[in-house]
Amino acid sequence: MDQLVEKAAILHEALPYIRRFHQRIFVVKYGGHAMVDEQLKQSFARDVCLLRYVGIQVVVVHGGGPQINQTLGKMGIESTFSGGMRVTDDETMNVVEMVLGGAVNSDIVGLISEQGGRAVGLGGKDDSFLKAARRTEVEGRGADGSAVKVDPGRVGQVEQVDPSLIRTLIAQGFIPVIAPIAIDSNGKSLNVNADEAAAAIAGALQSAKLVLMTDVEGVKDAQGEHISSLRAREAEALIESGVIAGGMIPKVRFALQAVDSGVEKVHIIDGRRRHALLLEIFTDSGVGTEIQRIHDPV
Question: Residue 175 is part of a domain; what is its CATH number?
Answer without folding.
Answer: 3.40.1160.10
